Amino acid sequence: MAQTEKKGGLLRKSSASKKPLKEKVVLMYDEIFTTEDPSKCNPRFWEELFLMKVNLEYLEGKLEALDGEELMKIKDNINCLFQHCIQALGEEHPIRVVNALQTLCALIRGVHQKNKSTSGFDIINMLVGFDKAELCMKNLMESLDSLLCAEGSESLKSLCLKLLLCLVTVTDNISQNTILEYVMINSIFEAILQILSSPLSRREHGYDAVVLLALLVNYRKYEVVNPYIVKLSIVDDEATLNGMGLVIAQALSEYNRQYKDKEEEHQSGFLSALTNMVGSMFIADADEKISVQTNEAILLALYEAVHLNRNFITVLAQSHPEMGLMTTPTSPIPTTPVTPLGTTPPSSDVISSAELPLDADVQTGNLLITFLKYSSIVMQDTKDEHRLHSGKLCLIILTCIAEDQYANAFLHDDNMNFRVNLHRMPMRHRKKAADKNLPCRPLVCAVLDLMVEFIVTHMMKEFPMDLYVRCIQIVHKLLCYQKKCRVRLHYTWRELWSALINLLKFLMSNETVLLAKHNIFTLALMVVNLFNMFITYGDTFLPTPSSYDELYYEIIRMHQNFDNLYSMVLRLSTNAGQWKEPASKVTHALVNIRAIINHFNPKIESYAAVNHISQLSEDQVLEVVRSNYDTLTLKLQDGLDQYERYSEQHKEAAFFKELVRSISINVRKNLAFNTLSQELLLKEFSTIS
């Protein structure tokens, strides 16, 4: 018997002698794409349609093939199909519901394709008709809400979320998606929270639910009162917030694991020597370079939770006992196509098997540790635009954390010590740190390590000025908390001081190139004022008196850099150019640093001459410093422990609009190719009762 093949809605025998036959569902679609009412000749047309397996490819292709004018001619049938889909969602038999959900996805996507090219084309009118829009969309949202909250099929819930993601992301700019007005009016917020609060639902649907929520929060957020923002800001249910944190932690942790696997793969191969030489983790292909983009959706969700909901701050430090140990999956994991690193959510099999461990080498983990490790990966390479955006968002999240009083309390808590293994960029002049030698320290030490690592590794031609400014601001905000609460943090402050001095040296060495693009004096002033903070208030938060002595030692040891900086800013502040004012601010800020250098250097030279020593040791210099504090005069500088609080709307609106656009495109692309296959759904509902 000849084998039957199926292609593009056609059934044909391998013998080419017979005319190809169309599937029944395709014939029914063809009837919809005429100007006649398909139920005229067949009163059971709509009932039969939703018993047929949906042919997504054919239906979408048919819609895309029509121009706007042709589509308007069959508008009544499209409206009718849309309305019957909504009616079918209330059916008892899941096969009809599955097919209705699939058809709605195809309809929304297909009709929206027309919306891109046709001016004045109204998507709502085309899909449902103005006169029935409000009622139909209300019914649709209520049906989806019921399906998401019901005890029934997990596959149906999954498809509901896919439909909602499809609906939200059909336009690149979600704020131009007029359908979302109905999603605002008929909220599904509580349904999303229910998914996140239930362990079973969270494992199956948590990723999609969190991404959906992050996108909905960003709908016209600067123009109108978005109910999802209002509701998210007041959630205080512990199970829900922990559930959301767990989903985010799993997604970031999965990314970290994939990255580590890739890193080890490259290091074990013959490319490792070359990889280290060029100072890059990967010799990456195009797919690997853009891999961070998709995880920006989860990062956006973390940002919105941290930024909007003060209760979520507690989740950052919450230990996840179910993430402590890796268990073997009870069922085999199905093979899936290889995708670029991080472009898809963690598979439900992986998540349900373990509630993924945050850190293989840490006994207990939490969301903040996983986030810091993730940040240390994406902040390594900022040359790629997606990684640059991801790195910027990481720093914005850390800025919000560094401003929060409660977050600072647990960051600096001596009773909460962790060993955080951050990723460090391979550099020729330093050895790779041994992971096992990492000490257990308060979490703020890992944040400071991350900032120092960024400062040291990004002094390059394409200078990421914006990221450096954010980095220094985070350090400053942490110091303000330490000064205010008199927290004496046992940290290797010398590493920070050295990094800051080298940054100033870099700015001076590349003055001409950098000034063509950036106002480097803003950054220089911030760095100098960090030193002023240590000089003025260091005795209140540095761990020991000797730490304060070491600060002076570093300033004196590296005095040439401060002298050169002073010469540079003095030169520019005495000229009548565009940099006069910003340069003069740095000149004034250097007053105490110059006082220290000018006070101690003669004393050190005198000590060397009296004792006939050509080069003093560190201990000898420190002895001179300790002996001569009394005669040092410093000026009191105001406002060193003050800072401007983070504000999204006034400063970051353009960044978030572009970021959400990028996420919308990416989510839509993954929905289109990976997640709307019916096979698994139909297996679950293979019998018609």
UniProtKB/TrEMBL annotation:
<keyword id="KW-0472">Membrane</keyword>
<feature type="domain" description="Armadillo-like helical">
    <location>
        <begin position="435"/>
        <end position="671"/>
    </location>
</feature>
<dbReference type="InterPro" id="IPR039868">
    <property type="entry name" value="ARMD3-like"/>
</dbReference>
<keyword id="KW-0812">Transmembrane</keyword>
<dbReference type="GO" id="GO:0016020">
    <property type="term" value="C:membrane"/>
</dbReference>
<protein>
    <submittedName>
        <fullName>ARMD3 protein</fullName>
    </submittedName>
</protein>
<dbReference type="InterPro" id="IPR016024">
    <property type="entry name" value="ARM-type_fold"/>
</dbReference>
<dbReference type="GO" id="GO:0005829">
    <property type="term" value="C:cytosol"/>
</dbReference>
<dbReference type="InterPro" id="IPR013636">
    <property type="entry name" value="ARMH3_C"/>
</dbReference>
<keyword id="KW-1133">Transmembrane helix</keyword>
<dbReference type="Pfam" id="PF08427">
    <property type="entry name" value="ARMH3_C"/>
</dbReference>
